[in-house]
Amino acid sequence: MATTATVTSTTTTATTAGPAIPDPIMEAIGHAVTEGRVGDRASARRELLGLWSEIGVTGDPLHRCSLAHYLADLYEDPAQALAWNVRALDAADAVTERRVQEHDAGLHIAGFYPSLHLNLADDYRRLGSFAAAAEHIQAAEAHAPSLPQTPYGDLLRRAIRQVAEATARRDRSPRRSAPGSPA
Known about the structure:
Blueprint: H1 5-9, E1 12-15, E2 18-22, H2 24-37, H3 41-55, H4 61-72, H5 78-92, H6 97-103, H7 113-126, H8 130-143, H9 151-168
């Protein structure tokens, strides 16, 4: 589930001195995400991996968080998705509120965390690590008040409940509604 979905839909960076300026990395991430969503997942993965090489592990945390979050969705294997979701959460911890606001005044870093923890919980659940999944579900639930009262926020709250229920049942099967799930 991509809480950062609105991050890549806005392809400019706001400045305090005047009009927004293009953010080519966010534009490229958005392009790859769109490509992946219309079915060319392999190409989207290649594009995002190329961008990751360009950004580097010490690059702009907003870029790293967004890219890793979406790249994880392009892997059906929960172990591969987990590696990218861990990177996304680590990068989110380095993103400042100011940086998020520079990108899009309507975003807040707190709103990223429910989805990031949800994705980690789902990966751990699918791998059979139910205690780790439960920890991340608790974190997602703790951050859920940051979600907007919109259909998107409702979608994430519903997914958090679904993963919590599947974790309690010790169900390792993929969720049909999860990003990266086979259609």
